[in-house]
Each structure stands twice: as structure tokens, then as C-alpha cells.
Write a structure and sequence with these properties.
Blueprint (H helix, E strand, L loop, with lengths): L5 H8 L12 E6 L6 E9 L2 E10 L2 H14 L4 H5 L3 H7 L8 H29 L5
Antiparallel strand pairs: 1-2, 2-3
The structure holds FE2/S2 (inorganic) cluster.
Length: 135
């Protein structure tokens, strides 16, 4: 049986940035088809930087710890920097995850990537709408 690191237990017992972000600019949701767990990450962006972030996770303890850790890692980063956060980086920051729990880490990076993609798509939509049409 694998033992969880102290950091995993800390983030599981005292999750950071959990809950709603009412003025979020974008949200990303990722589900795990194997276990059925779900994670939502909401971001607030200013000048291409994540200034606020929250998560809501219906999932196992590792998924909660991953959510908490990835929100801490992403806050303050530019969108390009945040896109580079991989499941391995999150697992490393947590002091490691048991091999059969690495898929839980995947939820975090995927949900964050989807939130960033949604933000960029919305932004591009607005720019296109506001751009003067040439006849
Ligand atoms: Fe489903 Fe961890 S077991 S996310």
C-alpha cells in the first residue's frame, strides 16, 4: 500500500482556493471516465495573467489535493506559463503521488488548460465582434 506525502494530506485536509469564483472570466471542466470524478477550475484574468482562481472537485483525496496545489501554482502566472503546468509538475510539488493516482493529477492540468482555452476563445470572439468590418 502506498503512503501519501504530508503535502498531499495537508492540501486534502486544508484545500486552498476551493469554491466559487463569481466573477470568473472562464471555466474548464474535466471528468475522469475511469472513476467518474469531476473537476472544475475557474479563472480570473487580467493582462494575460491569472489573478484569481478557484476549484470545485467531486473526487478522491488525491484529486482534491491536486486541485488545491494547481490553483496555488497557477495563481499569478501568465496564461502561457500556466498552460505548461503538467500533471507531473503538480505531482512533484505534492511530494509525489502513488502510481495508480497519477490520473487524478491529470484532471487538474486538463481542467486548467480547458479554462485557459475557453478564456482565449471568448477573447478572440470579442475581438472579432468589435473589429470594424471592412466592406
Ligand atoms: Fe478519480 Fe482520483 S480516483 S480522480
Amino acid at each position: 500500500m502506498h503512503k501519501y506525502s504530508e503535502k498531499v494530506m495537508d492540501h486534502f485536509m486544508n484545500p486552498r482556493n476551493a469554491g466559487d469564483l463569481p466573477d470568473a472570466d472562464a471555466k474548464g471542466v474535466e471528468g475522469n471516465p475511469v472513476c467518474g470524478d469531476m473537476m472544475e477550475i475557474a479563472i480570473k484574468v487580467e493582462d494575460d495573467r491569472i489573478v484569481d482562481i478557484r476549484f470545485k472537485t467531486f473526487g478522491c483525496g488525491s484529486a482534491i489535493a491536486v486541485s488545491s496545489m494547481i490553483t496555488e501554482m497557477a495563481k499569478g502566472k501568465t496564461l502561457d506559463e500556466a498552460l505548461k503546468i503538467s500533471k507531473e509538475m503538480v505531482a512533484n510539488e505534492l511530494g509525489g503521488l502513488p502510481p495508480n493516482k497519477m490520473h487524478c493529477s491529470n484532471l487538474g492540468s486538463k481542467a486548467l488548460q480547458k479554462a485557459i482555452e475557453q478564456y482565449r476563445a471568448k477573447k478572440e470572439g470579442r475581438v472579432l465582434e468589435e473589429a470594424p468590418q471592412s466592406a
